[in-house]
DNA sequence: GCATTGCAGCTTCCATGGAAGATGGTAGCT
DNA sequence: AGCTACCATCTTCCATGGAAGCTGCAATGC
């Protein structure tokens, strides 16, 4: 955790509570694998590292537990949760269900918003293709992530966004890995375009099915890959 | 909150922490409208009522906030969240997306489990019809709730269950109201049967669409009803 | 050699007190 | 009268200490 809370409190600027800061710092540390899955920490130790007392650390840990990132073992400590292949499957099933719903909602938006959303989605898809042409894998991943985030963020259902946020936090480490594992990427562009067109033209069923199909294919492609590599947890 | 924590600690039997007890007690109190939406409480007051100190109450409040049941206003207090019609819409959209996904998964289960699940779902549907014939509205609601819970509980995705649990906690009060508001109920039986048959016969697409259609119809029936009654919050 | 028991060191859990912040009413000023 | 500034009071936020519980190891008994 380089620099402890300082960086985060600066970044958040606006009067973040110690709990919020600790929560953000720990979450980031987990996302970036500063703490490996299975690592067992104590609230006291983390509090020392972050320069706060045990209380805010404990409350942050409770929130992280709520989101499935850590488990608090009574009287024993805090352990970083690992993801089994079954978890990846479950997470993809959530993505399939929710993003399909989000695409349907998006296609039902008033025309102005629909067009603006479609434009923004197109922008990210273009970025993906550019990154692909330049061989920039990280850039491709970032644009892909943005596409999916924007779709859910702007569909008009805040609960969808919340759900997606939770599973994304859980699966970020897996995502970083599978990005490098995949043999080929270019299909995504066409599938994104199908979703975008359906949204722009206000066709809810088509949008839903396009988004569904996109995630279903990704799941069917990645799951066997993960299993074949023999990952027990990540 | 009749009896405070005592009843809950007894019920839970197994060494429940004070935080868990307080969480359960507060959640139940909110579900049963002991605290009306908009009611503002302080952690100290609730702690006094429950017979514990402020710390476990505060941690329970954090969990409830995570689930959207209360809001903690910094330095001000804890307020019980109200549900606007827009929230009901969002909740139904979540139900539509997740339950459709659950039905699809269920239809893909191994035959033994599929049959057992279909039987149990049929049992609840039968209970609904019996309750309907007897004019027992509460019994009908309970069986309907059981049907939907069992479907998600046994589909093989624990995250689905968790998501549904959260929105159900939020919408329980609204459910109690709309149950009495609806002009007629009997259609549900047939729609449940369509879902059950598709699951039993291992037809994922059919199961998904049946479950989807069931919730879509319920939404399209209830939302205008709620708006027409002019509920601003519940 | 093997099982059991006791203990030391760790952990969380919960209570409590002080500090800082938000609010609403009142007094004082223009 | 209307507006501002202040202050009493209530609240959460966070630090800290004591109590209880879990684990692993060593010592003891068989």
From TrEMBL, chains A, B:
Annotated SUPFAM superfamilies: GntR ligand-binding domain-like, Winged helix' DNA-binding domain
InterPro entries with a match to the protein in the record: GntR_C (IPR011711), TF_FadR/GntR_C (IPR008920), Tscrpt_reg_HTH_GntR (IPR000524), WH-like_DNA-bd_sf (IPR036388), WH_DNA-bd_sf (IPR036390)
Keywords noted in UniProt: DNA-binding, Transcription, Transcription regulation
Pfam family, one: FCD
Occurrences of domain HTH gntR-type (ranges): 16-83
UniProt-listed Gene3D superfamilies: GntR ligand-binding domain-like, Winged helix-like DNA-binding domain superfamily/Winged helix DNA-binding domain
Record GO terms (molecular function): DNA binding; DNA-binding transcription factor activity
Top-level lineage group: Bacteria
Record protein name field: Transcriptional regulator, GntR family
